[in-house]
Write a structure and sequence with these properties.
The chain is of the alpha/beta class. It has a single domain, classed as Rossmann fold. About 55% of the residues lie in helices and about 10% in strands. It is built from nine helices and five strands, in the order H-E-H-H-E-H-H-E-H-H-E-H-E-H. Strand 4, helix 8 and strand 5 form a beta-alpha-beta unit. Helix 2 packs across helix 3, helix 2 packs across helix 4 and helix 2 packs across helix 5. The radius of gyration is 15 Å and the shape is globular.
Length: about 160
């Protein structure tokens, strides 16, 4: 982790969604269908972990997924949420991968566009944080540095954080 603090961290879609929903209103975490599997403690752990990195990286694919997944937020919450997205992601470094590149990767059929782009962008450059077990296993098999958020949760529970 230490070597990536300045190089960069890429947070996968579900966790980035948790982060943005929690920053908008932590009470939404348990009430929004896309984040119900998490809790406020997960949000806190994720926030602390992400804050320990100086550079945050994302892709247009991840941002599109977040935007699409949050269109079902209640009408009275959506304007504030999208305003907070603009503020939150203005500090992120955004890297893109052309569809032809991502779809040409051997994992495209199995993992789809977003995960193919993540795999391409992060190779030997950035640490990936995900709770997607198949993606984490694939990245590890490719000798890419990845942390499964579920392992962070277990460590936090073990140490009483």
């Amino acid at each position: 982790m230490k070597r990536y603090r300045s190089k960069g961290l890429l947070v996968d879609t579900n966790l980035l969604l948790l982060l943005t929903i929690g920053r908008c209103d932590p009470n939404l975490i348990q009430n929004f269908v896309r984040t119900q599997k998490y809790n406020v403690e997960d949000f806190g752990l994720l926030s602390r972990f992400v804050a320990s990195f100086r550079k945050h990286v994302t892709t247009p694919h991840v941002l599109t997924e977040i935007s699409n997944l949050t269109t079902r937020l209640p009408d009275h919450i959506r304007p504030g949420y999208f305003t907070s997205l603009v503020s939150h992601f203005s500090a992120y470094f955004e890297e893109s991968v052309p569809f032809s590149t991502a779809s040409g990767m051997g994992i495209f059929v199995k993992f789809g566009l977003t995960d193919s782009a993540i795999t391409h962008i992060t190779r030997n450059k950035y640490l990936v944080l995900t709770d997607d077990f198949p993606l984490a296993n694939y990245l590890q098999s490719q000798k890419q540095d990845v942390i499964n958020f579920n392992h962070l949760r277990q460590m936090a529970w073990s140490f009483g954080s």
